[in-house]
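Take a careful look at the sequence and tokenised backbone pasted below. I need to know what the token row says about the fold.
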Amino acid sequence: MDVELPELSFPLRTYGPDGHWSYEDGVLTGWAGPRQDRFVPPTGEALESAGDAPRLLGAPEGDFQLIARVTVGFTHAFDAGVLYAHVGEHAWAKLCLEYSPDVPTVCTVVTRGHSDDANSLTVDGSSVWLRISRTGRAFAFHASRDGRRWTFVRLFTLGTEKETGAALVGFMAQSPMGEGCVVTYDHIEFRDTWPDDLRNGS
């Protein structure tokens, strides 16, 4: 199913399990079902065991920043709302507001065959601003408590410049240990530029 958001210059399409995605008055809402996630444990060899979770993704052109305030209805460990980038079946990344495992935390996962897992800043409450940016073959992750001053979280690549330029990006909800959770995204914004400076708070 295709979804168009007025804030974005590109259409979105649903992937994975049904996320019951809806959009009204500037708020995008999605639901993760029980034990839905995308993660390939680095301690195992099963590259096919990523699992799946509801995703709403599109293909922006050129440099960009995708921004949203993410709010998660936490009920179980590792419930999360996610900004997501997908380059290939074994190359994708997540910027999450996650209950990790009992404190809301900005977490990142970069998967190149297997997934890594890294925690960043903790969050008071159930909302935080997240930003994913791309230029050339590079992605950057940032987070903000107020939508104005941004904390640098991660800089990485997922493939060649051609592969990264064709990446799908957007939104995901997950509940890997629980019975499901609801995620909302508001203050959604799209910019066709790379940040001027990754580390100065802008």
